[in-house]
Amino acid sequence: xxxxxxxxxxxxxxxxxxxxxxxxxxxxxxxxxxxxxxxxxxxxxxxxxxxxxxxxxxxxxxxxxxxxxxxxxxxxxxxxxxxxxxxxxxxxxxxxxxxxxxxxxxxxxxxxxxxxxxxxxxxxxxxxxxxxxxxxxxxxxxxxxxxxxxxxxxxxxxxxxxxxxxxxxxxxxxxxxxxxxxxxxxxxxxxxxxxxxxxxxxxxxxxxxxxxxxxxxxxxxxxxxxxxxxxxxxxxxxxxxxxxxxxxxxxxxxxxxxxxxxxxxxxxxxxxxxxxxxxxxxxxxxxxxxxxxxxxxxxxxxxxxxxxxxxxxxxxxxxxxxxxxxxxxxxxxxxxxxxxxxxxxxxxxxxxxxxxxxxxxxxxxxxxxxxxx
Length: 373
Prior knowledge:
By secondary structure, this protein is mainly beta. It has 3 helices and 30 strands. The protein has a 3-stranded antiparallel sheet with strand order 1-2-3, with helices on one face. Strands 28-29-30 form a 3-stranded antiparallel sheet, with no helix packed on it. Strands 4-5 form a two-stranded antiparallel ribbon. Helix 1 (39-52) runs antiparallel to helix 2 (56-65).
C-alpha cells in the first residue's frame, strides 16, 4: 500500500492521492475539493487511515467531508487484510464482523480484552508456561488457572506429546518419480521406484557407477531413473547377460554351447538327432539306397535299412553277388576225375545269394600211360 500526498485542512481536502489494496484489487483515487467520491474509495480511505495511522480523526474527516458517503458497511475483519499491520484481533484471536464498522474478537485461552491484547498470566500474576510444559515445538498460552498448548502439525494431547495419527503427511504427495508414500507417526516414508533414492525419491541412482550392471563387455549409460546397456555381438538382454542359447536353440535333443562367432552358438545333438538345431533324425535324410526302407532306432547308429532283393549293406548300397569260383584239386592225377568248386556271397552269408555255394565237377588230367614190362 503506497500513499503519496495527504493534506487535510479542517474539513477541506486539497489533494489526496492514495494507492491501496482492497478485496485483492490494487486501486487508487484522487480527491479534490468538491469532487464526488465513490463508495469503494471511501472504504480505501477508511482502511488506509486505520491501518497505517490509526488516526480516527482522519477517518471522521472522510465521513464529514463527504456526508453523502457512509463507510459503516466496511467489514473491519477483512478491510486491509493484505496489509501486514492489519491485525484487529491479536495473539491468535478470531475476528467477527458486527456491522456498522465494528467487530469483536474471540480470544485464545489465556488472553482477553477488546483485541485480545491482555495476557492472563499478567492479570493473575502467575506464568503457567514458565516450566515449558508444551513439547515438540508447541506454543504455550497462559490461562487464568492453567496453560494451553498450540500443537505443531502431527502432534496432539494437552502437552502436544502424542503423535496425531489423523495427520496425513502423504496428502501433499511428497514422494516424487513414482514413489509410494506411507504415513507414519508424525512422519512419512517413501518407497522409491527402481532407479530413484532419497527421502522423497528425488535423487537418480547411477546404476553404472559400480561397473557391474552391464555384463560381458557391454557399455553402460546412465539415464534418469534407469540405464542402458549397449551389448557386444553375441549378447542380448537388459544387462547383456543373455546369449543366443537363452531361446533354446537346440530344442529338447541337444545341448546349446555359446561361441564368439556367428551364429554365436552350436548344438551338440543327442538321441540320434542332428542338424543346426538338432531338428533332424537319421531317417529324415533318407540314408537307405536302392529302394531300401529306413527304420529309426534309439541307439547308435539310430537307423536300420531293410534292403530289397539283390541289395545289401547298412544303406542298401551294395549289390548282392557271388564271388568267382574257387576250384579244388582233381581227384586223379591222370585221366578223368572229379573236383569241388566253391564261391562266397558278397554279404558274407551264402543264403543271401541264389544258387549253390559248392558244386562237384569233372576234371581231366594227363592221359595215363601203361608201363612196358
